[in-house]
Amino acid sequence: MRVAMIGTGYVGLVSGACFADFGHVVTCVDKDASKIEKLEAGVMPIYEPGLDSLVEKNVKEERLFFTTEARDAIRNADAVFIAVGTPSRRGDGHADLSYVYAAAEEIAELMDGFTVVVTKSTVPVGTGDEVEEIIRKKRPDGDFAVVSNPEFLREGAAIKDFKIPDRVVVGTDDERAREVMTELYRPLFLNETPILFTARRTSELIKYAANAFLAVKITFINEMADLCEKVGANVQEVSRGIGLDGRIGKKFLNAGPGYGGSCFPKDTLALTKTANDYNSPVRIVDTVVEVNAARKKAMADKVIAAMGGDVKGKTIGVLGLAFKQNTDDMRDAPSLDIIPALQAAGAKIRAFDPEAMEEASHLLSDIEFAKNAYDAVEQADAMVIVTEWDQFRALDLDRIKAALNSNIVVDLRNIYSPEDMAGRGFQYTSIGRPLV
Ligand code: NAD
Predict the structure, then answer these.
(1) Residue 191: what pLDDT?
(2) For residue 216, is it within any domain?
(3) At which positions is substrate bound (predicted)?
(4) Which of 77, 225, 287, 357 sits most deeply, having the most CB atoms within 10 A of its CB?
């Protein structure tokens, strides 16, 4: 199959490279010329484990191409994927669909022969209808079908998630489109991946419902963590105690500083907007949005309290800036709430992140970036772990202790044990676990 991928970001690039690796011929298109230049030079514009070698292999074997020029890619494609961004619209929180609609206009102009137009971007219910109308208006006699195929990959594990997904969801009632989509994903039959065919609107809603459910789960355990702190219980044991129940499940029950990233914050918000538009509010999601936003802000107060209530003139060594490990993505990262609040309280920040410092430098000001974790805490008045990178999980704690000006450690990811840290002489604060 010949595939055109419009938008070469986290989703478009990973999906494009994986489809190419399945044996399809894929052209990834992006308006951002610097991204395409980098890719053509073999440099990844994002950090995603394993992506560089996957791209290199498929470029070499002539199944994966990059361009800023959509014309040939769309004209020759059996399927054109729209994988552009759908950020929150400024002011009202609805998904901004301008990039999706612009891509639809472009596809309408250039498509040739039967073309399956696939919305891979996360889009509100009814967007497929709108995309169809845009294309139909421009090409009244065009031969095409618009399909919803939401993406569930997680940054940091994106290749595995794409190649061995829990499920593939395809929303269409067009038989020819169904055949094309089946052929595209046929290599997954080997792993017996379920392909769920639904109506287009159902498929669009599945993506939001999935993300909202996961956000509810995280927020639930975060609130349990707060309660644990008050009543002297341990949230990790609560998680395990409930997660072993098959109806609940173990995943997404790690308490932390609140969810961030490029999807949950904007998708939960967009779902509440859609629900309100249809006069069918999703109150549980409304609450989750509110609770999570407040939580991210409250994390700075937790750090300040751990440091005795005053951080004026103090230096804080921050480990981790990305919204989670194994990515350089800073979109809506908790660090973007925590660090400015600490700075506003008078603290100086020295931070280290293995991959996200370049991106963070555009979003945070007056930070000193460190060479590594030890450098970040050198002569600092506290160490604060914000992102759970593997390399922070087994730090040389004697070296940390010697580097720090104090013995204060705030671990917002619960990657160390309170008993162990207390035993080593740290004044250790974590999330939802009793102080020792
Ligand atoms: P991104 O911002 O990393 O990438 C989007 C890319 O599209 C950018 O490079 C931009 O230059 C390009 N673009 C925009 N308009 C274009 C056009 N008309 N022609 C060509 N290129 C164009 O975004 P992302 O994180 O890959 O997300 C894309 C979509 O996938 C969003 O709807 C998102 O919600 C969804 N999604 C993201 C993830 C994730 O983990 N990032 C997971 C599942 C779903």
Answers:
(1) 82
(2) no
(3) 152-155, 207, 252-256, 260, 324
(4) 77
Kindly report the number of other CB atoms within 10 A of residue 194's CB atom: 10
Atom 12 in ligand 1: which residue has the minimum CA distance? 7
Q: Are 158 and 251 part of one and the same domain?
A: no
Buried b (16+ CB within 10 A) or exposed e, 269-284: bbbbbbbeeeeeebee
Band the pLDDT of 7: cuts 50, 70, 90: very high
Q: Is the CB of 139 under 6 A from ligand 1?
A: no
Q: Which two tokens stand for residue 356?
A: 């996200």
> What is the domain count for the chain?
2
* pLDDT above 80: residue 435: no
Would the CB of 69 count as within 6 Å of ligand 1?
A: no
- 144 DSSP β-pair partners: 115
Distances (CA, A) of 297 to 133, 216, 262, 290: 42, 18, 18, 11
Residue 436 pLDDT level (bands cut at 50, 70, 90): low
Mean pLDDT for 209-228 is 98
**Does the C-beta of 151 come closer than 6 Å to ligand 1?**
yes
Q: Give the Å distance between the CA of 166 and the centre of ligand 1.
A: 22
Which residue has a Cα nearest atom 22 of ligand 1? Answer: 7
Domain with residue 33: its CATH number is 3.40.50.720
CA of 397 to the centre of ligand 1 (A): 40
Residues 149-161 pLDDT 10s: 999 999 999 999 9
Q: What is the pLDDT of residues 78-99, one digit of tens each?
A: 999 999 999 999 889 999 999 9
| Domain boundaries, position 332 | 226-429
